[in-house]
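Sequence in, structure out.
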Amino acid sequence: MLNLEDPKYSIEQIAAKVGKTPAYCAQRVRLTELAAPVVEAFYAEEIGVGHALLLAKLQPAQQEQALTNCFREEWSGAGAKAKRILLPVRHLQQWIEHNVLLLLKQAPFNKRDPQLIPVAGSCVECPKRTGHNKLLFADVSGNADACTDPTCYAAKLDAHVKAKVAAKPELVQISTAYKQQPEGEKTIPRNKYVEIREEKPDTPEKAKWPEFKTCKYTTEAIVSDGIDKGELRKVCTEPTCPVHHPKKQTPKADASFKAEQEKRRREEALANATGIRVLQSIVAAVPVRLLKRDLLFIAEQLLPLLDEKRLEMVARNRSIKAKDGESVGKLLTAFIRKADESSIGKVIVEAVILLSARSQSDGGKVLRAAAQAYGVDTEAIALKVKQEFAAKEKARKATKPEPKPAAKPKRAA
C-alpha cells in the first residue's frame, strides 16, 4: 500500500484503517528489510518477534553482528556440546544502544554539512538517523538522536579530521592510545605529549599539577586516532618543557616536608580506598552480555597484562588468597575457567579499568567514566569512606597512651 502511486497511502492512514498505532505499523513494515540470516533464524523460531523488530531497524551488516548477541552459550561439562540459550529482548536492546547507536550530539563534525561525504549527504536528512523516523525508534532510551550506521559515522570522522588538518596545517595530530611511534608517523601517541585540561582545578593541590598549566610550547591539536577522534585539544609535546616535564628535585628532610608527606599519604590512602569501593560497585553492576567463550578468551588475554599488585587486588575482591609458592595469576585463571558468564564479565571490566587507569595520567578519569556508565554514585561512596577513616582516626587517638612524665633526678648525699 505504501508503494502505490494512486491512491497514495501514509503510515498514519494505514494505521487508522487496521486499527493499530502508527509506530506499530512502521515497525512491522521494517521487517521486510531483515537480512537473510535473521530471516532464517526467525522462521526457525530461534529468535522471537521482539528480537526481529529490533534487528530490522539496523543496517544489514549490523543485523548479522547483533544476531549473534541474541544468544549465550551454556556448557554442562567437559567435552559436552554448548547449549545456545536465547537472551531476553532487553539484553539485545542494551547491546544495540551501547555498541551500534552513536549519539550525534557527541559527533565533532557538522551534522548539517552535505559535502563532508557527498554520497552520504547531511545527517539531518539521513533516513538512518533515529530522529529521522521517531515512529520506528520510539523505544530508544530517552529518544536520543543517534546514527545507526557506524561505517558511515567513521567515514565522516575521517573526512572531518582531513578537512581540519587541510584548513590548519599547523594542527598537531595526536592519538589517545599509548604506543610506540613509528618513524615518519605524524600522529603522536599519548605517552609523547601532555594534554592541557580545560576545566579549572577544584583543589589547591591540583592547581600544581602540570596538566592544569600552560607553557610557551602549548599548541592546538586534533585527535586523529582513538577515543574522541576529531575533537580539538591543547597539548605540550616538548620533552624539555620545564613546566610539563620538570626536573626532579631532592626535597629537604625537615618537619614541614614530613608533615606534607604524611598529609599526602593520608589523602592517597583515602582516594585509594574510595577508588576500590567504587570499582567494587561498578563490577557489581556489570550485566551479562557476551557468550562465555568470548568472555573467557578476553579475560585470559587481559589478566597477564596486569602487574602483581593489580592481580592481587582482583584476587582479593573474589576472596582468592595465594599461599607460599603459589601464583596469583594461575589461581585467577583457574577461577575464571570454572566461573559463569556473569563472574567472568565482572573480571574483564575490572581488569580493563585497572589497565586503563595505569596507562593514563589521570586514572580517576577512567574510574569516573566507568561509574557513570554503570550508574554508581561515587560521591556517596567517597563520603562513606571518609566517615570510616575519620572514625578509625578518632579510635586510634582515643587508644593512644599518654606519655609518662620524666623521672626527677636523685640528689647527691
